[in-house]
Amino acid sequence: MEFRYLPMTVQDKKEMLVRIGVHSSDELFSDIPETIRFKGDLNIKEPKNEFELTKELTQMAERNVNLKSHTSFLGAGVYDHYIPSIVDHVISRSEFYTAYTPYQPEISQGELQAIFEFQTMICELTSMDVANSSMYDGGTALAEAVNLSAGQTRKKKVLVSKAIHPESLAVIRSYAKGPGVEIVEIDHKDGLTDLDQLAKEIDEETAGVVVQYPNFFGQIEPLAKVREIVDTQKKAMLITSSNPLALGYLTPPGEFGADIVVGDAQVFGIPAQFGGPHCGYFATTKKLMRKVPGRLVGQTVDENGQRGFVLTLQAREQHIRRDKATSNICSNQALNALASSVAMSSLGKQGLKKMSWMNIQKAAYMKSRLEANGVDVTFDGPFFNELVVALPKPMEEVNRVLLNKGFIGGFDLGQIDERLENHMLIAVTEIRTKDEIDQFAKELGDLHG
Amino acid sequence: MANQDFPLIFELSQESRTGFSLPTFDVPETDVEDLIDDAYIRKAEPNLPEVSELQIMRHYTGLSKRNHGVDSGFYPLGSCTMKYNPKMNEDIARLTGFSHIHPYQPEETVQGALELMYDLQESLTEITGMDTVTLQPAAGAHGEWTGLMMIRAFHEANGDDHRTKVIVPDSAHGTNPASATVAGFEAVTVKSDDRGLVDLEDLKRVVDDQTAALMLTNPNTLGLFEEDIEEMAAIVHEAGGKLYYDGANLNAILGYARPGDMGFDVVHLNLHKTFTGPHGGGGPGSGPVGVTAELEPFLPKPILTKKEEGYVFDYDRPQSIGRVKPYYGNFGINVRAYTYIRTMGPEGLKKVSEYAVINANYMMRRLQEVYDLPFDRHCKHEFILSGKRQKKLGVRTLDIAKRLLDFGYHPPTIYFPINVEEALMIEPTETESKETLDDFIEAMIQISEEAENDPEKVQDAPHTTVVSRMDETLAARKPVLSYQKS
Predict the structure, then answer these.
(1) Considering A17, A344, B16, B311, which has the largest number of Cβ atoms within 10 A of its Cβ?
(2) What was the ipTM of the complex prediction?
(3) Calpha distance A297→A103 (Å, rounded)
(4) What is the pTM of this model?
(5) A170 and chain B: CB distance < 8 Å anywhere?
(6) Which architecture, in CATH terms, is B89-343?
(7) Helix (H, G, I), strand (E, B), or coil: what is residue B383?
């Protein structure tokens, strides 16, 4: 079998072994004790040539129902949006995707500047002072924010709304175990964080309060009121997780005095790809700048006074501080941050606002159509691009019916909260047409018949 | 190349210029103020650039030209395995049936994706010699933390609450001690001996009944195989601790040795290193974790299983450490790694390590004539040189690295591992041709000559890049982390 990625010829190998001073390559592995040396062949599939493997994997891919073959109203943290063609052309430039972390600034100005621009765009969207170069995803970014608040305030209790993404909540719980942070869940009521319970639970031991804006149910949490409650404790921080697309039209958390704002930039130029890789963002106030996890790019000058960019404030990071680092994160999601930057540049100031507005409008239209078809929309409050409906049948059954009609139905809320059994979370983005919305609302209405 | 300023995309912006093409707005419009309280409607618009599509493309094309990747030239960045990123992998990951599927679709609609994940898990299980693998962690450091949390859960399940220490060698990557801390452990250092291997006597000294685990790469960060691994495993296991394998250096031993056979209990892999998921300018990566049967109950949930009706996720895992990431891991990177494994097969993967090790030893033997070689023995996929000799001439390792830029190379990893003075850590990988290695060696020899005859040329390097050395002190002292319109 030929291996097109391996350039070593028989002659090369011979010459190199002679230069090394060994008779065979096996001698180079003689330091692996005989007892643990692997003998025989790995029991994995035999190699395939490019043509045949492409054929096989294409068939495998085609077995998946996808967001292009069907009309999807599924969101719940991962959204199908318009992705400008230019995004993939930029991130396919291999000077970007075959590079690593820009440790050598002289030959990494492209990546460094692209990240600096990404950081700027996130600051603009969130109205925060500082943003990092990216995190794995919105969920782990939120978990890091929780631990940061505990470390910074030297307090061990964080109040987390149950109206955040359930998987983010699960990740928070896993991350909190390390430093021993106590997570207190604040229930939701009428689709919003129960502010009475929040006010009751907050005390001087509270390091932070976590809400999602808009929340998992699509509802717009009243951040001003949440901030008032957080303000009853001098040290407690307000942490929000925000869909950055929503911030094109909604007042950003920074304007409500949020201390940390995180979320996922998947909505900008990144396909769903079965849940990852996406692109977490992490933004803070200036005060927390030196506590931020992950890479930060800063502007500086070179020896000739020329503007340039470098990785900076690295004393926070694992490769310098080792066990005293603010986080263990090393690899991040740089290429996806680039994709999001390109998408945000394409949309620009006007496009972003318009796209955000279209989501609000089309979701509002969905609500009116559902109501017209006799479907019970569960929550009354203002919402962004997702809404909850109650259905007369189990969701699994409903989604099967919908699938047969060409739809990928919404998220089954009964999975996460028994009070919401037979409730569906529906996402409506700018790519859904009036006809699709009309038809979907009618299908749900027909379930009642 | 002369120094050139390159405008920020914000500096190209002109009011009312557009680069977007949104879908049709075809539903009746509602007055937003009827929907949303005025206090929650944004007043000051975010200052995003207003640019045309060509301006964006030229901007990023220009930036890409100011960036060095594996496709641009040799990138022997030690411990990072900067091998070729196959183009086929990119095409497969972009197939609609892989890139445009939603993690909450019913399982029966994504059987193709689940089959790929399951088969990848099986392949990685075999390659590492472990009993089972999870694909959930997003990157190497994330895998480390996941593995340590599982070890912690294991000890706690056995009533062993007092195991608070994780041992790491002094040559370890910074993520190891950082992950230990984040998982709630105390990191304890074990010394290397003059062979460059873990000092067994020191290991015996630091191991005790508080030891939760020993974290190790093998080959280690010096590129040397820890040949006492069985004895080390016995020392740690007898004390009740677990052995953690950092898979950063797996590229050296594919088909030659398996962490599971060496006695490791937990393994993480960096699919963006050994298995060609591209590095992406810093990520995304993927960091699957493999474990022995004993630790299986503690795997993050859900786990993917194969049943008669097909592939399904199992959430009923009472002892699980919980979720470490939303959804099921960095699927897009896993698709690339899977494509690579299927391209290479057992024979190809073994050749990968054979050639990676030959390349590294060849370079080491040629370069030891002009640079100090702190550990004179066969290396594995990478090796360490010391710039001590050049330092005496006033040329530091940093200068050597910067001078290499003038030759069109990405420099090796420098000043790491921290237990070697003026370290240069060189990892050629198997995908580089002998001609490339020879050219690089010649450049290194020339630089060593310059260090003797014309040290300023090295000290003042680089001479050909778009910017010269950056003022990093200024960047840290007066941080400017985002663009401010002047």
Answers:
(1) A344
(2) 0.97
(3) 11
(4) 0.98
(5) yes
(6) 3-Layer(aba) Sandwich (3.40)
(7) strand
